[in-house]
Amino acid sequence: MTILTKISSNKMFGGVQNVFAHDSKELGCSMKFAIFIPQECGYSKVPVIYWLSGLECNETNCIQKSGIQRYAAEYGIVIVCPDTSPRGLNLPGEKDSWDFGEGAGFYVDATETPWNKNYRMYSYVTSELIDVINANFPVIPGKQSIMGHSMGGHGALICALKNPNLYRSVSAFAPICNPSQGAWGKKALEGYLGAENKGLWPQWDATELVKSYSGPPIELFIDQGAADPFLTQLLPENLIDACKDTQIPAILQMREGYDHSYYYIATFIGKHVAYHAEYLCN
Ligand SMILES: N[C@@H](CCC(=O)N[C@@H](CSC=O)C(=O)NCC(=O)O)C(=O)O
């Protein structure tokens, strides 16, 4: 049984925004997650959307900056936002840079030491966290979708592509689409999987996973600011080309003038919740 410790609780839009901590077996440390529970949960179970944040984030960025709760309340959907990496381990080098280690778990299961024991964010998100949520909150098991931003957008894509029946739908804001080819991604894959182990990288690269995808039909909804300063290393065009080649339906929604920030996310988060609600609430 998982013991949940309540960190904070605030009523909003008729529901409640909570943050909890729990001991994660997968990550070997205490982890926090935020969960918005709409008022419908007072009398019935509802669907759930998992949100994965980007580099330098924790469980609070989405709940404090995106305004997602307004739409979650409207559609009656639980929103779960995990932290982005294990915390407090004090591994050597873990806090040396903002784009690797703490706050930058990249939603992979590391194979390189010293990361391989704890940096297992993929298994945490796709298995342990779902079990914790299903066992402790009024959600309908299996009625779940996933979305995220940047590193977390890539995390959402690989979680869905690697587990075709786990999520009803997937969407991503400004995702890192082809990490093997961009600076942030290369640094993460080299560190967590090994620079010499390039054979492992395609399993953790959304564009490569699309190329080898053989599961049931799955649509990828990619949202991208046209004025994003990181666009040249996010590489949505590589993902879209791979989708065209493999006939995987993909929506690439370009947003003129928008950057990489939560100002951009807040502008369009309602469109994404509405998109997922089509799969979750009908
Ligand atoms: N410090 C960096 C920029 C870091 C950044 O933009 N982080 C994004 C996610 S980027 C990809 O995963 C973010 O969401 N930040 C948190 C926030 O609340 O905005 C730099 O110097 O370039």
SS content category: alpha/beta
* Morphology call: globular
Strand order of the largest sheet: 1-2-3-5-4-6-7-8-9
- Tell me the strand percentage band: 15-25%
N-to-C CA distance: 32 Å
Radius of gyration from CA coordinates? 17 Å
Helix content: 25-40%
Order of helices and strands: EEEEHHEHEHEHHEHHEH
Number of helices: 9
- Largest sheet entry: 9 strands, mixed
* Quaternary structure classification: single chain
What is the mean pLDDT? 97
Bound molecules: the ligand N[C@@H](CCC(=O)N[C@@H](CSC=O)C(=O)NCC(=O)O)C(=O)O
List the uncertain runs.
none
DSSP E strands, number: 9
Secondary-structure map with pairings?
Layout: E1 5-12, E2 15-24, E3 29-37, E4 46-52, H1 61-65, H2 68-75, E5 78-82, H3 121-136, E6 139-149, H4 151-162, E7 170-173, H5 183-193, H6 206-211, E8 220-225, H7 231-234, H8 236-246, E9 250-255, H9 262-280
Parallel strand pairs: 4-5, 4-6, 6-7, 7-8, 8-9
Antiparallel strand pairs: 1-2, 2-3, 3-5
Helix pairs in contact: 2-9
This protein binds the ligand N[C@@H](CCC(=O)N[C@@H](CSC=O)C(=O)NCC(=O)O)C(=O)O.
The ligand N[C@@H](CCC(=O)N[C@@H](CSC=O)C(=O)NCC(=O)O)C(=O)O binds next to α1.
Enzyme class: hydrolase
GO molecular function: carboxylic ester hydrolase activity; S-formylglutathione hydrolase activity
Keywords: Cytoplasm, Hydrolase, Serine esterase
